[in-house]
Amino acid sequence: MRRGIATVSLSGVLADKLDAIAEAGFDGIEIFDNDLTASPLSPTEVARRCSDLGLTVDLFQPIRDIEGIEPARFSDVLHRVRRKLEVMDQLGARTFLACSNALPTALDDPGLSAAQLHAVGELAADFGVTFAYEALAWGRHVNRVGQAWSLVQRADHPAVTLAVDTFHMLARGDDGTALAGIPGDRIGFLQVADAPVLDMNVLEWSRHFRCFPGQGMLDVSGVVAAVLDTGYDGPLSLEVFSDVVREADPYVTARDAMRSLLFLEDRLGARVSGVAREKVTVAPPLPARTDAAFVELADPDRSEYPALLTGLGFHLAGRHRSKPVTWWRNGGANVVLNERSAAGPAPTALGLVAPDVAAVSERAANLLWPAVDRTRGEGEADLPGITSPSGLHVFVSASPGEPDDWRRDFLPHDGTAEPQPGGNDWLGLDHVDVTVTADDLNQEMSFFRTLFGLRPEDPEEYIQPHGRLRIRALRAEQGDLRVALQVSEAGSAPRRRGITQLAFATADAVGAVRRARARGVEFLRPPANYYADLDARFALGTDLLTVLRENDLFYDRNDEGGELLHAYTLPVQGGFQVELLERRGGYSGYGAADAHVRLAALTAPTTVASTVT
Q1: Nearest 5 degrees, angle CA 481-CA 487-CA 491?
Q2: How far is the C-alpha of 233 from the C-alpha of 227, rounded, in Å?
Q3: What is the model's pLDDT at position 422?
Q4: pLDDT digits over 292-330, tens only?
């Protein structure tokens, strides 16, 4: 499968875009007219540069508003197209894209439009090229792929073909079935883009929020599979408009784009057959399940972390065979302290159990996710590490008891620090919050989706005292891993990036908080108004309200009666918090109704105190 990308999908000037696209390994490009117009390079020089870089010019685009034109003005259209065809000839492009007319003056006359498309087809044939006609989702009279195909048929010219754009189709509610009966040799070009599902003007949606496959929520693979099933033999080409790609490093964007096409091809492997199946590259399968194993805290300066962990009920469970790393455990919850890390005190890595380890490592390499450079001692577990776009290191372990189980690398502690009474009952790591930049959000989500198959949940947004907080949670289809990606847009200093919250599950949140407080751990204190509001919303009994208030616990209940009791430590060294939570009755959320209270409480003077006294 030939892989291409439109130059509009990257930032920078045309020459820089070509270099970035070639370095990422693309086969061809769509040259966006605006990029060429603004370039000091002549079309011939651009063609030569592409040839030197091993790129073909697969498409020149767009030529707009060529149909539905007042007949008296159509000669102007033919003049404009002729001049662009002369440019195309110098570029060496054999296909151009024509968008459906979006002007308010466009005429709603299918017969006229078909005749005008035929006339443009005649002109294209004179130059030995073809054009692909695309239904813009905001086109004045043609905004669905079926309407565009109808006009292509009525135009009845071999140089007039259909363009399929996944965004325009899916944004209008069409899916792959809309392409039924269209021969593959009449589809002149396929453009691919994903997007989050948003309720907004489709033009604004398209211009600002498109993204690469795997970063949005549209059924891109369904449309592409339908195109391939027609026998289409052209390139698989990305066309993404967004505020993010307009500002990002073009080399980073190009690599991200290539990765997204490889992921798309991987998904297509299960949806196409025959010749189409032979063309796509399929990576090793997703892990059968993905569970949280441990969190690594960098502790090069012997920080307050051991005291914090002891206060939370963890005990020293083991020491690494060859590295200055210790393993701390509380029931099913595991934390490792790395004294050799070059990073300052902070959470730096996440350990996962995701069999088969070798397959996950190979899948990461196939999808171009960078590996962590690490040393492995003789006889130690193979724990491949992968770096996410935010810089988080993710290590992959085999299942408990297997040769590559991460716990095999630790020698049992000598027993001088035994578990404290009632302090070995945590269930495990419930979720981690990872704060990323707005520019990294789509990439970070793509990392967890493409590599581990995590499913994005509905986006959430909260008001902070000095800005807003956007959250996109992801959850394993099989397994207990949950990751909540956060973008903090605050007017004050930006929040720390990386892991900013560790949420541990317990069967008894009240008891866990009481024991931790007795050992000196300080917790975030909600205001009295919060508990009055709880009573108003849920009509809680006096006894439960008292318990919640006395233990600084937050509370939520869903419509099915499921409950969440949770508390947060004050921010600790390294800029993160620890959350203790208890889920009851199948509650699966994160306490969204409490978020604004917690964020406001973080600005209170008491939050600057040490978490362990």
Answers
A1: 150
A2: 9
A3: 43
A4: 999 999 887 777 899 999 999 999 999 999 899 999 999
- Determine the pLDDT at residue 418: 41
Angle at 230 between CA 225 and CA 233, to 5 degrees: 85
The one-letter amino acid code at 518 reads A
Instruction: Determine the Cα–Cα distance for residues 504 and 521; give it in Å rounded to an integer.
Output: 15
Residue 130 contacts residue 120 (beta carbons within 8 Å): no
* Contact by Cβ (8 Å): 269, 220: no
533, 600 Cβ separation under 8 angstroms: no
Q: Give the whole-angstrom CA distance, residue 23 versus residue 113.
A: 41
Segments of the chain with pLDDT less than 70: 342-343, 414-424, 490-496, 604-613
Distance CA 211, CA 275 (A): 28
Whole-angstrom distance, CA of residue 569 vs CA of residue 611:
7
**Cα three-residue angle 101-66-93, rounded to 5 degrees:** 115
pLDDT of residue 85: 97
Q: How many helices (H) and strands (E) does the chain have?
A: 19, 25
Do 229 and 186 meet the contact criterion of CB atoms below 8 Å apart? no
Total residues found in the chain within this entry:
613
C-beta separation of 257 from 244 below 8 A: no
Helix (H, G, I), strand (E, B) or coil at 564: strand
Q: Say if residues 69 and 115 touch (Cβ distance below 8 Å).
A: no
* CA–CA dist 166, 209 (Å, integer): 14
Is 375 exposed, middle or buried, given 0-12, 13-18 or 19+ CB atoms closer than 10 A? exposed
Give the Cα separation of 152 and 98 in Å (integer).
12
Q: Which among 486, 483, 453, 458 is positioned nearest to 214, based on CA atoms?
A: 453
Cβ atoms 312, 518 nearer than 8 A: no
Look up residue 544 and give its two tokens: 């439960």
**Which amino acid does the sequence have at 392?**
L
* Calpha distance 372→384 (Å, rounded): 7
Instruction: Collapse the DSSP code of 192 into the 3-class scheme (helix H, G, I; strand E, B; otherwise coil) and give the result.
Output: strand
